Amino acid sequence: MSTDVLVLNRNFYAIHITNWRRALSLLYLDHARVVDEEYHTYNFSDWRELSNLIKDHPAGFVHTPTFKIAIPDVIALRAYDQVPAAEIKFTRRNIYEHYGYHCCYCGKKFQTKDLNLEHIVPSSRGGQSTWNNVVTSCIPCNIKKGDCLPHEAGMKLLIEPSRPRWKGAQSLVLPTFIKFKASWQKFIDNVYWDSEIEE
């Protein structure tokens, strides 16, 4: 059985994914509470009682000689309220937010659907997917630049590329081998936008 459990800090901020054994250990040791879809929390004995009333549970059950207990989808730590510090991930959302949803060539602000990620030095010419080489651009500017360097296309960057500074906010990024659960949706917003882009 390999069931993953979402771990929240005590402020219900998603901070980690753990396995069911660790989740139940944290619950049993009173370091965590189970969180259900309506944000109700349960300690070990309450969750054990509730598990007896549950006929079918998507994550399954752990059976002992004296009782069964449902494997939780989400747990919240009781004492930990920190968010693990890290550098800002190179994600679509973070790139768009860093440039304020502006095209770095014409300077106009656009909706997400009207922007692209643009390699200043094109990938075909060895340009890397890094903070110093990727900016946002509107579709017309992206088409105009094509596979050229900005000066070759007669264009100039109005907003220079830069690495953003961490401001204390971070999103949990799911590794690709983790299967996303619908019950996590309330705690993880649009994994697509927060998934790290390979450099």
Question: What do you see in this structure?
Answer:
The chain is α+β, with helices and mostly antiparallel strands. The protein has two domains: 4-84 and 170-191, no CATH class; 87-167, DNA Binding (I), subunit A. The chain has helices at 20-28, 44-53, 92-98, 139-145, 191-194, and strands at 4-8, 14-19, 32-35, 41-42, 61-63, 68-70, 74-77, 115-119, 134-138.
Give a brief rundown of this model.
With 199 residues, the chain is an alpha+beta fold. Helices cover 19% and strands 19% of the residues.
Secondary-structure map:
Layout: E1 4-8, E2 14-19, H1 20-28, E3 32-35, E4 41-42, H2 44-53, E5 61-63, E6 68-70, E7 74-77, H3 92-98, E8 115-119, E9 134-138, H4 139-145, H5 191-194
Parallel strand pairs: 1-7
Antiparallel strand pairs: 1-2, 3-4, 3-7, 5-6, 8-9
Strand order of the largest sheet: 2-1-7-3-4
Quaternary structure of the protein? single chain
| Unreliable residue stretches | none
Chain-averaged pLDDT:
86
Binned strand content: 15-25%
**Helix-strand makeup class:** alpha+beta
Q: Please, how many helices?
A: 5
Q: In which range does the helix fraction lie?
A: 10-25%
Order of helices and strands: EEHEEHEEEHEEHH
Describe the global form: elongated
Query: Can you tell me the number of structural domains?
Result: 2
Major β-sheet annotation = 5 strands, mixed
Terminal Cα span? 33 Å
